[in-house]
Design brief:
Number of strands: 10
Structural class: alpha+beta
Helix content: 10-25%
Shape: elongated
Order of helices and strands: EHEEHEHEHEEEEHHE
Radius of gyration: 20 Å
Largest sheet: 8 strands, mixed
Number of domains: 2
């Protein structure tokens, strides 16, 4: 371990349009390259065979999901005291190098709290826009467990969805707002939710396939537990 001093910055970013279809690894590359072009003094992992920039996304986003305020934690190498780092100016430079459909909407210095950003994520809020989606939700989630099969790497598992949903707003029939579990514990996959709404709630397959999916926020614990 060297004496490199690290400062940490917590960014919140939004993505819309075609960039909503970027996979997680593509988003990581996009931010890494944009930060290099914007002259951010990124810290790099130490002792690793392939060092990587210290960029941690709070909750990887699936393809097709727009984001309004998603967290990313950045480690900075500030060992060279001659290189002053102004966060406000750095964010401005970063936004000029990112695609127009990806914007940093907030940024602040943050203190280490013992756990990684990803491990502190516990919930997320989503907006799903599709014809009759709220009616489909009401028909599907009546209080009883809702079981959906999930196939991953040729293995099929059964996932219970009801316990993963914390709150729902169905006041607009064509816009469903939900707060659900996210992260390493009690995570709700939105594709499985849509699958249940088609099977049990009468949402059309075309409506599910064409639904607008927006993650409005990611909720994180601010203290280590």
């Amino acid at each position: 371990m060297n004496n490199t001093q690290l400062n940490r910055v917590l960014l919140y970013y939004a993505r819309t349009g075609s960039t909503a279809w970027l996979a997680h690894l593509d988003m990581m590359r996009l931010f890494s390259r944009a930060m290099n072009r914007a002259a951010w003094p990124l810290a790099w992992s130490e002792g690793a065979f392939n060092p990587r920039p210290d960029i941690v996304f709070g909750l990887p986003a699936g393809c097709g999901i727009e984001l309004e305020r998603d967290p990313v934690e950045i480690g900075l190498d500030v060992s060279n005291e001659a290189l002053a780092f102004d966060l406000e100016d750095a964010v401005r430079r970063l936004n000029t190098t990112l695609p127009e459909s990806v914007r940093v909407v907030d940024a602040a210095y943050t203190e280490p709290v013992g756990k990684s950003l990803m491990s502190r994520v516990f919930a997320a809020t989503y907006r799903i826009e599709a014809l009759g989606v709220s009616s489909a939700y009401t028909k599907t989630f009546t209080g009883a467990p809702v079981m959906v099969e999930h196939v991953r790497k040729k293995k099929t598992t059964t996932v219970e969805l009801t316990s993963k949903i914390m709150d729902a707003d169905v006041s607009d029939d064509n816009t469903l707002l939900i707060v659900c579990g996210a992260g390493s514990v009690n995570h709700l996959r939105i594709d499985l939710l849509l699958k249940a709404l088609v099977r049990d709630g009468g949402l059309s397959p075309e409506g599910a396939a064409g639904a607008r999916l927006v993650r409005e926020s990611v909720l994180i614990n601010t203290v280590s537990r």
